[in-house]
Write a structure and sequence with these properties.
Elements lengths: L1 H17 L9 H24 L7 H14 L5 H13 L17 H12 L2 H17 L2 H28 L18 H8 L5 H6 L8 H6 L1
Helix pairs in contact: 1-2, 2-3, 2-7, 5-7, 6-7
Organism: Solirubrum puertoriconensis
InterPro entries: FA_desaturase_dom (IPR005804)
Pfam families: FA_desaturase
């Protein structure tokens, strides 16, 4: 599944940059940008599953695939993400949770800014800028922005909204040990919105499940 997501992302991006001539007066380029956003989200979900060691039973292969998927998503660095994500699981919705708000500013925008500050580095921004300037030498700048740069930003917001903000906002019942909630069991929407990551309580309860098995846990 990991190889399929990476290969599909790469194949579609190659087509969109090298061969596609968008007509911005039609809905198609915007729909394709959303498809590419979904595939970007898939890259991060693949890296996320690798953090839990469920992409491959071979640890070296698991970490290699996780590293590749993370790098393709705006130059995220897997070894840096790994301890932070496990800190999130150990200290969910506490001051030691790097994904959580600061306790004073739980609004969507301020929480998103804190989330971005915790995960996006200056090096990533510089590498993205450098890559953009290289890509636009070979491909139309509008295509690079619409199908390479913008989808990575939209996917970041998508991951935060469905994978952090909605599951962990507000108060949780005292017996909710994972301080998480899940979206309603609509599997098609759950996949489209964030690769079943909206079934977040199930993920925290069974982190050894890959993303494509979370819907079964929700049904159980």
């Amino acid at each position: 599944m990991a190889v399929l997501i990476v290969a599909t992302w790469a194949a579609l991006l190659t087509y969109l940059l090298a061969y596609y001539e968008p007509d911005w007066h039609t809905p198609w380029p915007y729909l394709l940008a959303l498809v590419q956003t979904h595939l970007y989200t898939g890259l991060f979900i693949t890296a996320h599953d690798a953090m839990h060691g469920v992409v491959s039973s071979n640890r070296r292969l698991n970490n290699t695939l996780g590293t590749v998927a993370a790098l393709l998503f705006a130059y995220n660095w897997f070894p840096r993400l790994l301890p932070r994500h496990h800190a999130h699981h150990r200290h969910v919705a506490t001051p030691d949770d790097p994904d959580f708000h600061d306790g004073k500013h739980p609004s969507f925008v301020l929480w998103l800014l804190r989330f971005a500050r915790n995960y996006i580095t200056v090096w990533q921004v510089l590498l993205m800028a450098a890559t953009f300037n290289v890509l636009k030498l070979f491909f139309p700048a509008a295509n690079v922005i619409a199908f390479w740069m913008l989808p990575s930003v939209l996917a970041t917001v998508q991951l935060f909204y469905f994978g952090t903000y909605l599951p962990h906002r507000g108060e949780h019942a005292p017996d909710n040990v994972h301080k998480s909630r899940s979206q309603l069991p609509h599997h098609v929407w759950a996949f489209v919105s964030c690769y079943f990551f909206g079934y977040h309580y199930e993920h925290h309860d069974q982190p050894y499940l890959p993303w494509w098995r979370l819907w079964r846990a929700k049904q159980a």
